[in-house]
Amino acid sequence: MSTRFSKMMSVRRPTLVSRKVLIDSLVRLNPLRLVANPVMLIVEITFFIVTALAIYPEGFPRVASPSLRLFYVEVALILLVTVWFSTLSDALAESQAKNTANSLRRLEMEVSSKKILIEEGSRRIVPTPSRELRKGDLILLEKNDTIPIDAQVLEGIAMVDESLLTGESTAVRKAPGDDVIGGSQVLSDTLTAKVTVNPDETFINQMIRMVESSKRPKTPNEQAVTIVLIGLTAIFTILIGALLGISLVLSLAADLSVLIALYVCLLPTTIGALLPSIGLSGISRLYKEKIVAKSGRAVETAGDTDVILLDKTGTITVGNRQAVEFLPFPGFTERDVGEAAFLASWHDDTPEGRSLIRLAYEDGFVPKEMNALDASEVYEFSASTRTSGVKLSGGTGFMLPKSGGTGRERGRLRRKFEPHVEGGVPIGSDEIEIIKGAPDAIKKIVKSVPADYDEIVQKISAAGDTAMALSRNREAIGIVRLRDVLKPDIKEKIMAVKVMGIRPVMITGDQPLTAKSIAAEVGIDEFQPEAKPEDKYDIVKREQAETRIVAMIGDGTNDAPALAMADVGLAMNSGTQAAKEAANMVDLESNPAKIIEVVMLGKQLLMTRGAVTTFSIANDVAKYFAIMPVLFASTVPELKALNVLGLGLNTAVLSALIFNAIIIPLLIPLAMRGVTFKPSGTMTLFLKNTIIYGIGGVIIPFVGIKLIDVGISLL
Amino acid sequence: MNIKRELPQNYGPAVRLAVISLVICGLVFPLVITGFAQLIFPSQANGSLVQFHGKTIGSSLIAQNFSLPIFFHPRNDSASGVDPDITVQDAYSQIPRIASATGISADKLQQIVDQNQEGTFWIFGTPYVNVLELNLALINQTGSSVYKNFR
Amino acid sequence: MGWKEYFLAALFVNIFQMAIAFVIFSLQDVLPLNPQGFPGLSWDSAFMQVISFGTNTNLQHYNGEGLCNQLPNCAALTPGVPGLSYLSQMMAVQFLQFTSATTGICVAVAMIRGFITHSKDLGNFYVDFTRSLTRILLPLCFVASLVFVGLGTPQTLTGYQIVKTVEGATTQATQTILVGPVASLVSIMQLGTNGGGYYGANSAYPFQNPSPASDIFQIFLMLLIPTSLCFVFGQLIGKKRETRPILWGAYALFALDLLIAFTPNLPVVGPGMEVRFGGFFSTFWTVVTTAVTTGSLNASLSAVNPLVILSAFNGMLIQATPGGKGVGVMYMVMFIVLTVFIVGLMSGRTPEYLGLKITARDVKLVMIAFLVHPVIVLIPMVLAYSTGAASAIGVGTNSVGFTKIFYEFTSAAANNGSDFLGATANTPFFNVSTAIVMFLGRFTPIGLLLALGGSMINRKRLTTEAGVRTDSPLFSLILVGSILVLVLLTFFPFLALGPILGFFQGRVNGF
């Protein structure tokens, strides 16, 4: 499964220009398609004007001369290439985004579904293509079926493989009320489910729609940048118009092609060309993280985050607690406890349950009664008893269970124990009941409580760990020590968040002592212990009242109000439909720690946009010094004093134009990848980027134009 | 806001304010200043006129035409055209002409120029003399007979 | 008042005031206090002049005293070229100088109110106007006027004095002493950054500016209120530190102007300068008068080095160094918003200023306000040549001539008022074109920036100060850089053809 998944996700390298991208970039040269990008449209119009100069210079007395025909051809070509670089960047960004989306879209291939029609009280199954399903339809999901569309389970319990969508390799148990996601697969049993969305409303579809750039609405910040670009374009249009007028009325003999060259050099072509791809590749990067944003706006807002609410579980610590030690009560061995834990957890799909199996397995405590697991009675976890467990009745020798657990676990067991299958030992037909749960809950159901029961539990709590008690046939046999395991790089991430001036707040259901020790370990100063889901809403409200921008994650229905209220709400795909609807982003991999990446990505997106804009404007200074000395060279030779770079009079204009064009493809990787930055405070980032892209933006073209000029004159 | 509705609402107060400000700024203020000025600084308020032997012969602030060789001449190329001052250098350069026309020694003339030199602000600017005052000093202090018609 | 109401109130009051002044200019021949018997102004001249004074520009296409100042010994007034009667000087010129300066303070304060936390509206124009006038300008001008009289500036309603000169004892030559209610006008023209002089020669004329002391006092008055308003900004919004970018930015640019102006060499007295001011104060004045868009002159612009002219252009094109009364602060806020938006984006947060997120609409308002300037400077400049209006008044098609025309419209657009052309530009083309430019250059940005202030009311305000710190020295530095780049990008080719070319040529004639 996981191999197939990773193959699907491997996106073609964005820098690789495929033939399709090339053709697309040429098609985009159509002026009608450039209307959305006024800067580039104008550059294309100037291309047509200079082409006209090249074809028939006699038609432009006073501003063109037939002797400069070759020069006009050169200028026209560079202008066309400038536009093409821009369309190429668009085409690349779009192809990259589409590839990312398509790999996810494949998950939602057209499948046949079993629609249930209820006629006169009897059910009838009608095979229906998934396209034709509508919200509210009932569908039958049987073993090995691919779930055609997002739906909610009405009847039945089944194991469903969602790894394609979530990356989690574990099968998930689905029971009435749970949501199933289109594209996942039923591994066992049968479900009846109600379709919850229309085919084009599914998350993946929403995502794919956003990629189609023509339909992608501009974010508020993009709109504002576009206004700046239009304003600058207007200013430079007036400037060049006035310069042409002055040249004519004062007989300064400026050549129209040189004026146009100056015009195009001044226009914010760099940012004009790259603006669409910056936004689009930002979305692409989000897709690569397998996060669906409902709008680009949310991504930008993420960059403004002041407070980030982190659920301890899943964000700071790995899933749930991990079992680390079996502690038997007098009269029992460690093996007794381990085997009991194994049996009690076999049907428990939570990470905590799995960790019990793993610990037991690693210590070699694999129980003989495994074959009986298939015929066992499962006690699901209930909040009232705070226990779960299993009741085994009889079994004949060691056999691997056919279901339950995960494929991987079964495989592992098979490899280890298959040689002994034939030598299975009968264990009799006595019933075994194993119950695990909170120590005080187990205490209530056992026949007698061992003397050191409380003492052991106390010790474990004091160490910041959690105790879980085990009973076999209503007899307390031991305690399991569960420990929170930190995510591998969480400390660095928290540090980065804090450096950027963002306050992390940890939310946990733990008691204050445990919460404090974990918060301190990862460097979080604020935490909310013993939190109920409603507490998140209160925290969001409180922080927002102090005008802070709050980012949070959530999965349960209880999280929905807080998700809806938070400025940035990231819902887990494994979570409830309500949570997903309330959030403005959904993580298909259901990895809550990604909220930090989302914030960084938002910042990176804004930074990249600002950097290219600033760079583009700062570039203009050098271009004046390249072109102004040439513009009136014949009539105002004194202005050659502005030629500080010592460019050739015949090559200066071409050099400036070539620089202006070539900087676009050179910056495409920056636009696609985003500005790299080390996490630091707002003012530090501001200063660093201003030096690199502002001051650098003034200096680099001086160097670049000079180098190009030297290159041309060598030719 | 409906502009069509606002327009007439604004006419009344706008006109009133325009008229009241006209009376205060355009009439009352300059008249009050004129009154105070005439009371406190009557000489300056009326143009710093220079009395010479009972007659008003000009203003100390406004250059007047001197074309006879026996007088220091003002400059005509300045921004106002009535610059009352010349630089000391300029005055020195005119000394030979005046000396030969009047017979007054150059030393005496230079002494008169130096006496009438006006300070400059800090290090900025060039030392200068007021032409009218310089010429009146010539008439009064030299006792030369060429100036007798001007007393 | 909302921004529209406030703007309309200001516009109406100003238009009515200009209308009154128009009548006085046109009918000065039949109105009292006209001892010299000047004729009324022609319609285009009167139209241009009321807009000029009403917009705080004070571009003057006439010589207030008649053409007498051209000769040291002016007995007869040049017929057909009107001077202004005492009534016109008082009830048209001084009146509009007061009201336009007052309006400037009002609109600036109104815009700032939009940025104040919890403000509900932009205030009431009528109240603001009355208070600014009676509590700030009139008292200050009262004191300043008397100081000027003490320093030698006339203040009288008697007619021009005709006296027999020293040489007149033998030649019977006479001199006309051009007195009038000068001191009361000089105080408001400098304090209100108006710049329109009583005399054609403006503050070069000895009566208007009798001594180095009065010169320094006038420079002080010019800088007083524009600088104070930078502090008013921080004071009003309740964050005094936010004065910094406005004040520091303004004075850093001002220092740069001074540096450019004084770079070639320490200026000495030359033709076109007054001896009592010398080269230093003539140059310093020119920089100050354009930095605060006053536009008064104490030397002839033709007399100063091309780099001084370049520095003057800089002041007029930026308009916020610290800029004209009130509008200087408004322009600086405009530049701050623009800088925060473009450069501030690189901090990785959506741009905010004073805790207010900058929206696309804000950017639109600011960009249009920024765009107004090139439109109203460059287009009429080309028209002046293409219609032949420039050559009709003897302006050449060389760099000197070009500088004069470019300067004329830059000065008009910036509501500065200093110019090369003076009374020679009293032609219908220049009167009408500059009038339109002055009106648009004044009221369009005011309207747009009031709208900017108005849109800040009730906007969600972040108190976290997590965005770019505009009160840091670093920001002021970046602000100055952005302003220079933006303004230079917009006008560099024209500066290159004008003062920069003049500098390269090392002489002041011919392309």
Kindly state the mean pLDDT of chain B as a whole number? 87
Largest protein interface, residues of each chain: B-C, 76 and 90 residues
Structural class of chain B: mainly alpha
Biggest sheet features of chain A: 7 strands, mixed
SSE pattern of chain B, N- to C-terminal: HHEEEHHEEH
Tell me the fraction of residues in β-strands of chain B, as a range. 5-15%
- Terminal-residue CA separation of chain A: 57 Å
Read across the widest sheet of chain A, the strand sequence of neighbours is: 10-22-21-20-11-18-19
Distance between the termini of chain B: 76 Å
Query: What's the arrangement of strands in the largest beta sheet of chain B?
Result: 3-5-4
Specify the biggest β-sheet of chain B.
Answer: 3 strands, antiparallel
Unreliable runs of chain B: none
Structural class based on helices, strands and sheet pairing of chain A: alpha+beta
Number of domain modules of chain A: 4
- Please, how many domains of chain B? 2
How many strands appear in the DSSP assignment of chain A? 22
**What is the C-alpha radius of gyration of chain A, as a whole number of Å?**
33 Å
Please state the oligomeric state of the protein chains shown. Answer: heterotrimer
Q: What is the overall number of helices of chain A? A: 25
Report what the structure shows:
The complex is a heterotrimer of chains A (715), B (151) and C (511). Chain A has four domains: 2-102 and 210-286 and 600-714, no CATH class; 112-145 and 150-196, Calcium-transporting ATPase, cytoplasmic transduction domain A, CATH 2.70.150.10; 304-318 and 487-587, Rossmann fold; 323-483, 3-Layer(aba) Sandwich (Calcium-transporting ATPase, cytoplasmic domain N). Chain A contains 25 helices and 22 strands. Chain B is mainly alpha-helical. Chain B folds into two domains: 3-43; 48-150, no CATH class. The radius of gyration of chain B is 25 Å and the shape is elongated. In chain C, β3 and β4 (356-357) form a beta hairpin. In chain C, the strands form two sheets. Chain C has a two-stranded antiparallel sheet. Chain C has a two-stranded antiparallel sheet with strand order 3-4. Chain C contains 16 helices and four strands. The radius of gyration of chain C is 22 Å and the shape is globular. Classes of the chains: A alpha+beta (715), B mainly alpha (151), C mainly alpha (511).
